[in-house]
Amino acid sequence: MVRRLADGRALRHPAGMFTVSESEAEAIRRAFHERGEWAAVVELRRLFPVFSNNPEALRCVRAIAGWSPLPEAAEPPAEKVTALRRRRKPEDQR
Description:
Layout: E1 2-4, E2 10-12, H1 22-35, H2 37-47, H3 54-65
Helix pairs in contact: 1-2, 2-3
């Protein structure tokens, strides 16, 4: 399966693996919470037709329903910069 990342690069996964975008996960979670897990299985199979058996799809739905969106990335703290000073020459070397 080949999926495109946000920056346009292709992302390949081995057979049997798939990636779920945040919008796909939200649609599955919404179906799960509003209409139940079997409705979420239908939504998963609509989005990913590779699922041929319901027990496997149900296992994936339960995992996806438990996910929560990642928090927004915080700004990294500004690094403290220390100004460098010249060394004083020892008194006896002047």
